[in-house]
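Standup notes, protein team

Yesterday: finished cleaning the Blastococcus aggregatus set.
Today: Drug resistance transporter, EmrB/QacA subfamily structure.
Blockers: none.

Input for Drug resistance transporter, EmrB/QacA subfamily:
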Amino acid sequence: MPVDTLPDLRHSPVPGEPAPPQPDPRRWLALAVIAIAQLMIVLDVSIVNIALPDAGADLGISAANIQWVVTAYTLTFGGLLLLGGRVSDIIGRKRAFLIGLLGFAAASGLGGIAPNQELLFGARALQGVFAALLAPAALSLLALAFTEPRERARAFGVFGAVSGGGAAIGLILGGTLTEFASWRWTLLVNVPIAVATALAAVVLVRESRAEGDRHFDVPGVLLSTAGLASLVYGFSRAAEAGAGWSDPLTLTLLGAAAVLLVGFVLHERRAAHPLLPLRIVLERNRGGSYLVFLLVGAGLFSMFLFLTFYFQETLGYTPLESGFAFLPFSGGIIVGAGLVSQVLPRVGPRPLIVGGLALAVAGMLWLTQIGVTSSFVTSVLPAELAMSFGMAMVFVSASSTALLGVDEHDAGVASATLTTAQQIGGSLGLALLNTFFASAVADRMAADPTGGTEAAMVHGYHVAFVWAAAFLGIALLIGAASISARRSDLPAPEMALAA
């Protein structure tokens, strides 16, 4: 037999064993689709924040109620994430992704044409419902589509850049739309983007779903949803003017959250078909990653809030100028994520997480140098660049370790746990730091009534940034102690299952 007619056995499966899964040939195009969906989710809070004054004036929303434009979204999003993750596992991640996109588009359109505050609040809550389905499905699809270490690192690099830079991009886009069009376009812009993304996903994204156990843990759903919703609302209530941490409703919500979430954990230990198998969060690398994301959310979300106030209230920037002031942060995240994705397979996640959090702490402390007449170039820009590169290192690396070794069956709920940690962390951080900020301003005004309101506000920003740096410092210690994965562990064999 001629040599060139011999069968090629190099890639033949061993008799009796299944052929190894082949990578999706359209995975890079699918990544673009997933990244667009993730960007839409991440920027949807910040893009609307810029438009709040205009929306409030147009619809006659009181100062006490305007926060519901944000809270209605975060409440349903944070409360339903675990359920959304399990639903995506069972009905199929692609199907959940498509339902989430189209539902998000419909809710955005409803909010954009809302004639009154009630419909706007309801539309924002509905956005959160579909975002809770979309977010875990997106991360699961990404994790299951990329199994080769270097490719997977690059894919997570893109995802990390989008996750980290999305809030700043939202501020720029929101300022532009509000200033040159209408506040309504901060919501309406989602409609064509979501529909186009869904159409592309039909062709480019490969379906995957959990096999085997496909039961719903109804008690777990009720306990986790009610507990997380109470927790998010309790934090939001504590940050409201005139309420605070001693408010009876705040205490009731937080007490109910504690009871419900403890009950959830106790139930999950005994449940035959748990919503959140405790093995997901108790594994050292994954658990550490979730805690890192929680604390990073607490520090980073507040940075955006207080710098936005500083730019507009102290330095006199317009909404659009404030948005562009965050552009270096977005650029640093994008560039940094690209570099980190190249380095991650070589050095492993732990050095990057620890080093990135150290940079972020340094950047946050640098912001304590801002003053009433500070220069953006010397007082803010270095801090933004340090934090952006640091966060790129953390987002790319911790997103990968958060899904390390997770069975395909649990990919959706593991992804949802990661997003839940960041969402709850952001709510906790905003509530705590807003309280510290208000107390610091009041104390400075009482101690130095002739110093002026602007100086007192800047002092309050300093206090908030110190506490934000403390959150990031605790995250650094947790990352150093808990992340033990080596470069050879990425990706874990379990994640190399067929998507």
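Follow-up from PR in the comments: The chain has a mean pLDDT of 82.
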